[in-house]
Amino acid sequence: MSNLPTHRPDQAYCLLSALEAGFLNVPLEHIIDTAQPGERANIPSLAFLLRHSKTNDTLVFDLGVRKDWQNLLVPAYLERIKQMTFDVSVPADAADSLAHGGLTPRDIRYICLSHIHFDHIGDAAPYTNATFLLGEHARSRIEDGYPKLYRAALVPLERTRFLDPERWPALGPFPYALDFFGDGSIYIVDAGDGHCPGHLNILARTSPDGGWVYLAGDSAHDWRLITGEASIPTHEVYGCAHRDKEAAALHMRRIRELVETYPRVRVLLAHDVPWYEINKGGPGFWPGTIDSL
């Protein structure tokens, strides 16, 4: 395992804020193998705003659920969500949450989508000045998504960068990571294709002296998968939440290694129920910031 890079004098870092971006009520049996029959979970779809300490560049990681999500999905995708008994609600989307702190979608310079499932892609249309960042292995699904998954283009291809991790160096327990700004403030981490092709995570500095956050997307849908208290199920009705169970489990073990090795790394899941229950409505949501460890 390579080490996380040490901080430099006058180290650049990021201010981190959570954004409300919808909710899913889902059968817990789809997520962990220790769930009781009929047990359900109400999980947030979180987005995150990162602001560079020196340039004030803005990057949003994931956009959550869009308000008219049904209109984006093809009938087969909608039927699958119905079959899995997902209940979707979007009291506020990512754009609404940005507005709470006086930002508009036009103020966002970069949007990194962890992957292209419907509860992460949001509505790209208002972000007219943003460059979109996606994993290279999502390209075919983006460019050829209709009529397979979506009724319309998910991102503006003329402003989209597909990131290929093949030649990225290792970082901590992860085989591939890109120093996005070249100053050690934000690393885009290849999460492998275990959950979904082109899955990306972010490791960002949250202080000039060694604090970090790891934004894990859907690397795990429940903390018990990271701690080892539960494993990934393959349900007879719901199937598996991950495209490749073994590859997904390997990436979860790498995240667990990160947590155990670096006490100043805060890991946040896209559907982080424990963190959300403690922090909802609090200062960790924009226009506030999440404290650095």
From TrEMBL:
Identification of the protein by name: Metallo-hydrolase/oxidoreductase
Listed cofactors: Zn(2+)
Location of the Metallo-beta-lactamase domain: 44-271
Domain of life per record: Eukaryota
Pfam families assigned: Lactamase_B
Keyword set, alphabetical order: Hydrolase, Metal-binding, Zinc
Statement: the UniProt record of this protein carries the keyword Metal-binding: yes
One of the record's GO molecular function terms: hydrolase activity
InterPro entries assigned: MBL_superfamily_lactonases, Metallo-B-lactamas, RibonucZ/Hydroxyglut_hydro
Record family assignment: Belongs to the metallo-beta-lactamase superfamily.
